[in-house]
Amino acid sequence: MPLLLSSFAGRSFQSGIFRRRTDTSRSRKSEMATPPILSLVLPSETGRVLSIQSHTVQGYVGNKSAVFPLQLLGYDVDPINSVQFSNHTGYPTFKGQVLNGQQLWDLIEGLEANDLLYYTHLLTGYIGSVSFLNTILEVVDKLRSVNPNLTYVCDPVMGDEGKLYVPEDLVSVYCKKVVPVASMLTPNQFEAELLTKLRIGSETDGREACNILHAAGPSKVVITSINIEGNLLLIGSHQKDKEHAPEQFKILIPRIPAYFTGTGDLMTALLLGWSNKYPDNLDKAAEIAVSSLQALLQRTVNDYTSAAFDPQSSSLEIRLIQSQDDIRNPKLTFKAHKYS
Amino acid sequence: MAPPPILSLTLPSETGRVLSIQSHTVQGYVGNKSAVFPLQLLGYDVDPINSVQFSNHTGYPTFKGQVLNGQQLWDLIEGLEANDLLYYTHLLTVCDPVMGDEGKLYVPEDLVSVYREKVVPVASMLTPNQFEAELLTKLRIVSETDGREACNILHAAGPSKVVITGIDIGGNLLLIGSHQKDKEHSPEQFKIVIPRIPAYFTGTGDLMTALLLGWSNKYPDNLDKAAELAVSSLQALLRRTVNDYTSAGFDSQSSSLEIRLIQSQDDIRNPKLTFKAHKYT
User: Fold this and answer.
1) Which EC main class describes this enzyme (chain B) (predicted)?
2) B143 and B123, same structural domain?
3) B38 touching A, CB under 8 A?
4) Residue B231 to residues A290, B162, B176: CA-CA distances in angstroms?
5) What is the ipTM of this complex?
6) Each residue of B47-98: pLDDT tens digit?
7) What whole-number distance in Å separates Cα of residue B168 and Cα of residue B135?
8) Is residue A23 within 8 Å of residue B146, measured between CB atoms?
9) Least CB-packed of B57, B75, B165, B223 within 10 Å?
10) Do B59 and A14 touch (CB under 8 A)?
11) What is the residue range of B84's domain?
């Protein structure tokens, strides 16, 4: 029989009779000053991330995949859940609710009214409509009016393996409006091709795609997986200033014979986390991110196999909780090869 | 392609799968923001249903956001059910009967009796504070004996585990825990003396409940040990919070403090045992 824990204790509001009195603390009256945001005040190599992604009750995609790793790396993360679904769309069915642009903006206004809009980073992933994407652009402007040095890490989720899985009209919005305001972009091969209108059939093409994207906006670009002649590569590129050619590198990635969900969202979060700790060494940040992700994927396949499941018979839920040490203290198992 | 099997069930593990139905605030550490991360650190797969999504908690002068209604909550449960995803080892739920009440005390007596008559009987573990324990038992708690008696009353109504998280007795702050292992024997009861910290915090209650869930599942027959670990973690976090605010030049009594949850993750994962439970004989 399942164990039930029911608590009245987790009350977050001043709701009269259920006012918290825990330890020595009494529920505060609203005349008291609002607490300062310590993650900004104290010197630290981490920061405060606003992450606008989907939330699934079960499973590890969107914010479920991105927030925990960033918290493990020491970031205070403020998630705005663009949807709340029972589970991800890899299942036969799902139910839940979607946020519209106005509701997103309400949350931003709530934060603004309390002077809570100072973020070091903005992170976005899958966005399902042009109207929501346009509201995101307004969020970028608003956040940058508070912190002009905001780093916007954008995963331009549009499709994979040649298939578009967002409405077609999003592509030009990403191209014309989003890419120019992104600080770091993490497209996959298909998305990089869509954004640059370039077919990527070689490493040279991959590097050229990065150059095109730099010219459009972001100083950091990571094309997270490119299929070139049977090999899987990550190509990264950092344009430190306009006068010099970007520093570019590649990492060879093993093919794992299995399908996973949520790995893209996790990868982008890891790239944000580590590139902020190594701001001048995107190659090092990528090595660490890849090492973490690969360890997690290996563990996932092993765990499913040990439990007597054929890892190729379904897409696998990543073992995120069980891999937290690989995220916090990854063993560096991958090396970036710098292009000279 | 077939949907993935839920590994957290098939693999033998000392942790489990928790459904946590609490509020979500974009900024700050209350509700699910306070409960989910610690449980994940302790190795649990946590499935959060966010009963609300607010910009920040209501300790601030203002907040904006959306509330889930009963039907929307049920839609999520139906979505999970349709995919055979309703197997949980633990359910963590919070009922918030009143929201945005501008700090006014408001007692819907019939709601209290609903909790008492319907919710308490189905709970396996209850973590009321002193005020809530008094409401549920109709007993005034002014001594340790009263606290233990309140636990007995609650056991009789339902839960085999009760932790009254902060009781003011004679100037001291106490936690009183009680585990009735079977109906034939009297419950094993204990207390932990808790220091008074001269500061206000938000989210500590939600965090405490999550820690009690997490540790009591790892030590199912030793509620006293679970409580020692939970209190040790929480106190380390509170001390760090006060220290960090003070180091940053803030008077820790001038505002309620946001708990340093992220910065205290080691205290949650591997707490130093600094508090001892005193068993009542």
Assistant:
1) transferase
2) yes
3) no
4) 37, 15, 12
5) 0.89
6) 999 989 999 987 788 899 998 888 999 999 999 999 989 888 887 764 443 3
7) 16
8) no
9) B75
10) yes
11) 40-89
